[in-house]
């Protein structure tokens, strides 16, 4: 039986058409990466951008044998990158116990002379990533937990928080029906939408909440004098950042949505005593309220 196990995903940066893709994957146990001595072999199965599995002409099958390196990584040098798009790769390890476990190692191939324009969701995700990319301590630039689990944090995951941020903006008074295009569509001269920071800030707050949740379960060693990297404070650190950013964001949203009231600009503040200047008390204002805005 084949199982998708805990493992280490090495997310390749996009490579250019016809360049070599260095595919690496490693299984992880609680004690660390599974060692070379415990692995009998590794085979890679690769699906091309057209959605079909790429056949190995040597075996007439769809599995490509890889190598087990000294550190336990499965390795395959992949050269069939003539077609641009996303390649889905499954690294399937066979252990000496005859167990079979798999790890996904996907990568993307770009044509540098024919790069498609980014989607609106990609534009927002890039803006959010800009605010996060210098905040991590993992090797690959992301939450440290991605080094220990299959939970993969990248621009694609950030895009999934966009609807939640849009909902928060739309339910703020007065209710609206903004879409991602309201904030992400570029101007006529190709410049970034001036409203982009409003949505990207909201998405960032949602991602911060996700980061807080990610660090809920953190084991703390007990009963031994050992040195270890204590990451239990990470949840609190992300929560502090979230509180600051959310306060700023909510202020931005409320200031922006005042325009929906179409009240224009106030020129005079009328208080409850202003009517005393008039001859008739009937024209006096009875009370005044600061209101929500």
Number of domains: 2
The helix-strand sequence is EEEEEEEEEEEEHHHHHH
Please state roughly what percent of the residues sit in beta strands, choosing from under 5%, 5-15%, 15-25%, 25-35%, 35-45% or over 45%. Answer: 15-25%
Gross morphology is: flat
CA-atom Rg in angstroms? 27 Å
Low-confidence stretches: 1-10
Main sheet makeup: 7 strands, mixed
Please count the beta strands (DSSP E, at least 2 residues each). 12
The end-to-end span amounts to: 61 Å
* Share in helix: 25-40%
Structural class call reads alpha+beta
Round the mean pLDDT to the nearest integer and report it.
81
Report on the architecture of this protein.
It contains six helices and twelve strands. It is an alpha+beta fold and 293 residues long. The protein has two domains: 2-110, Immunoglobulins (Immunoglobulin-like, Sandwich), CATH 2.60.40; 120-217 and 232-261, no CATH class. The strands form two sheets. Strands 1, 3, 6, 7, 10, 11 and 12 form a seven-stranded mixed beta sheet that branches. Strands 2, 4, 5, 8 and 9 form a five-stranded antiparallel beta sheet that branches. A hairpin with a 4-residue loop joins strand 10 (85-95) and strand 11 (100-104). It is flat and about 75 Å long. The N and C termini lie far apart (61 Å). Residues 1-10 have low confidence and may be disordered.
């Amino acid at each position: 039986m084949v199982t998708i196990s805990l493992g280490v995903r090495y997310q390749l940066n996009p490579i250019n058409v016809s360049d070599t893709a260095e595919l690496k994957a490693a299984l992880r146990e609680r004690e660390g990466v599974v060692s070379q001595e415990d692995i009998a072999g590794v085979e890679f199965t690769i699906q091309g951008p057209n959605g079909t599995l790429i056949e190995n002409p040597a075996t007439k099958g769809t599995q490509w044998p890889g190598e087990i390196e000294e550190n336990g990584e499965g390795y395959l040098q992949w050269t069939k990158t003539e077609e641009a798009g996303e390649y889905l790769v499954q690294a399937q390890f066979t252990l000496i116990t005859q167990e079979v476990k798999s790890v996904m190692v996907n990568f993307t191939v770009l044509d540098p002379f024919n790069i498609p324009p980014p989607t609106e969701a990609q534009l927002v995700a890039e803006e959010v990533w800009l605010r996060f990319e210098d905040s991590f301590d993992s090797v690959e630039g992301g939450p440290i937990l991605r080094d220990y689990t299959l939970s993969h944090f990248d621009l694609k995951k950030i895009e999934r928080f966009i609807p939640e941020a849009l909902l928060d903006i739309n339910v703020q008074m007065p209710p609206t029906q903004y879409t991602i295009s309201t904030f992400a569509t570029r101007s006529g001269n190709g410049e970034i939408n001036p409203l982009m920071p409003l949505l990207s800030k909201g998405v960032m707050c949602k991602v911060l909440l996700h980061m807080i949740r990610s660090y809920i379960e953190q084991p703390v060693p007990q009963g031994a004098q050992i040195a270890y990297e204590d990451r239990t404070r990470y949840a609190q650190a992300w929560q502090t950042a979230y509180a600051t950013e959310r306060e700023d964001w909510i202020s931005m949203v409320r200031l922006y949505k005042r325009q929906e009231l179409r009240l224009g600009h106030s020129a005079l503040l009328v208080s409850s005593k202003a009517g005393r200047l008039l001859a008739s008390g009937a024209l006096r204002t009875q009370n005044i309220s600061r209101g929500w805005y």
